[in-house]
Amino acid sequence: MILLVLLLAYVIRRRLDGVNRVSTDAFWRHWFGAHGRARAGREHAVVPGLLRVLVPAALLAALWFLAIDQELRWTLYPLELLALVLLMGAPGWRQVLEAYSQAWGRGDMQAAWRHIQRWLPAAERGEALSPEAMHLSLSRTLMTSVFERFFLVVFWYVVGGLQAAFLARSLVALAEHWPQAPARVRFARMVDVIGWIPSRLLALTFGLAGDLAGWSQKIRRVLPGFRERNQRVLMTAADGALTGYALDPSRFSGLHPQEWPDFGGRSLRAIRDLLNRSMLVWICVIALLVIAGVV
């Protein structure tokens, strides 16, 4: 039943993302902002934010144990389906990427930058980036967003149930929306910790979902990578798994200058296709685990 819930939630979420509906970002900002004020000198404190996510996670865990004890586990599946649909998802990306690709194709890099500026990390929004650096920044942000809003949630749902998936997604939301910037940095480190294993699993999955030969040459640079950031692991693995220098714009422009106007859209489609195929691999593996009785 877990596999069915996960499949339904993924399909529904993808359809909602396609039409840019049901974004939960406003909810997270309101929830954290309502009681997210800090006294002077306490901006780095993470306890208030953690309390706001640990209490609901504990309630979900208690509800799960109660259902198991009463042999009513099946009653939680509708709740899990609804919760996964809300926890997963990256609405808005499709429209942004289409506008960016069109501007890139016209050679209007300023327009391309305006389309994506607010989606990039705050440290990179004000920088005058070259087209190559701008595209790599967008690619890195896109891959990280999809990882944290889909793969991270799926991994912890399978491993620890809805309460673990909620806690993982909540930490991502804290790193993005908590009012105090110093605390957001600390929450981001927590996201790196809980994302260490799933990011390495996804990096390994890229080898199955992409070019195995190219991937095998790059992956050894970052795995196991105990001190490597999750972003770098994913980008390096994806760079090897993708063909046509999809994540190497400088080399592409040198080898195929006449095809440069098509590079932006082509590269982003390759990244999205790789991530979609990787999710299919994960679903197949989860199905095998269900059949084997492990999950």
Detailed description of the structure:
By secondary structure, the chain is mainly α. The protein has one domain. It contains 13 helices and no strands. Helix 2 crosses helix 7 and helix 10 packs antiparallel against helix 11. It is globular and about 65 Å long.
Uncertain residue ranges: none
% residues in beta strands: under 5%
Number of domains: 1
The sequence of SSEs as H and E is: HHHHHHHHHHHHH
Gyration radius, in Å: 20 Å
Tally of alpha and pi helices: 13
Shape annotation? globular
Characterize the largest beta sheet: strand count, sense, and whether it forms a barrel. Answer: none
Tell me roughly what share of residues is in helical segments.
over 70%
SS content category:
mainly alpha
What is the total tally of β strands? 0
Question: N- to C-terminal separation?
Answer: 10 Å
Multimeric organization: single chain
Mean of residue pLDDT values? 91
InterPro entries: Beta-lactamase_Reg (IPR052966)
Keywords: Membrane, Transmembrane, Transmembrane helix
Organism: Marinobacter persicus
Protein name: AmpE protein
